[in-house]
Queue: 2 jobs
Job 1
Amino acid sequence: DAGITQSPRYKITETGRQVTLMCHQTWSHSYMFWYRQDLGHGLRLIYYSAAADITDKGEVPDGYVVSRSKTENFPLTLESATRSQTSVYFCASRTTGSSGNTIYFGEGSWLTVV
Amino acid sequence: EDQVTQSPEALRLQEGESSSLNCSYTVSGLRGLFWYRQDPGKGPEFLFTLYSAGEEKEKERLKATLTKKESFLHITAPKPEDSATYLCAVQGIQTGANNLFFGTGTRLTVIP
């Protein structure tokens, strides 16, 4: 049971470059999410998606773009990376219905912008 | 605005020394309160969901309880493998099931 797979796990990029973080889930969950985790802050929601081709902003969406052409994939793109986007990024998913509202997380992608 | 405050920020326990972690929350209407465990370099691992005041859930040495203002994660006779950061998060009725508001966590160290 692979669950959620994120790639790359570690990335160093330069300011102004475009970076895409990939997320793949094997559970067929409808909802997928991107969170970032920074020291002194709790995990904060960037974007989420309710289904293929349906996405919506979270708490901190500026500077990020998402797409969801297939249910199992939810890539996050930083169109022009900035140092403030140095963070750990977590992809997550949840099911719907009687199984409840639990959100399950991937292992994270560590991004450094220099 | 939904808010979550966890205390203490860090806690060191001797193996076998029971204690509790606190999660105080403010939410317009509670949809659910979640506890996660996070090991260094890993993603949060789901532990419990609590939905209403008075509810309790247990898993091995962990027991989570919920009141209208706070939740406690009780750790009974902890072992070194319980060392991790424990995260609390809430879902509010207004924000819906599509966002969790997280606290900054309690970093637990259990010394053999």
Job 2
Amino acid sequence: DAKTTQPTSMDCAEGRAANLPCNHSTISGNEYVYWYRQIHSQGPQYIIHGLKNNETNEMASLIITEDRKSSTLILPHATLRDTAVYYCNRAPLTEPREQGGSEKLVFGKGMKLTVNP
Amino acid sequence: EAQVTQNPRYLITVTGKKLTVTCSQNMNHEYMSWYRQDPGLGLRQIYYSMNVEVTDKGDVPEGYKVSRKEKRNFPLILESPSPNQTSLYFCASSSGPRGVYEQYFGPGTRLTVT
């Protein structure tokens, strides 16, 4: 039972915006959506996370629908170096260890984004 | 520069020969974790540490040991490596607990056990 659903792969032209969709229709009210990417067996890289408001940082923007059932990660000007596997996941705010929290990230299968020249 | 470093980056060893993979972070993070990544199985947590002298098992701790004597270091120890521990290993740290979603990963250690 997948917690999030992403396309298997997507292509984007260099310099254009890359819009990466993610479906999380069963998300709970206390669950965050977070995104990581992994470039060819390098360590995963944190991109962004959000709860219900749209978020933006130096890497990307995260647009979450009002019903929170889906979201879109936007890379405003994709470059060749953005080619990677992108992981969208959801999880509640981690509880302290004494309440069973483990600070564990759970990665699904992700989506391969290929940025073409 | 804020970073997590791991050593070695590549290691080929034989069954039963004890080895240690070091992990160090310079961000004064309290939380550190070890993951392994295998094709088709994704990223799985081995051990984690909430702070100095505080460690706990993740999902796949069998065959591994860790220690956290200093805040910046979190070595992974394989007392008697076996071929099924051939994998890509990542160390990660975060400021946690609320920083859990912003974990910083090391570059990875590719281990082959023959």
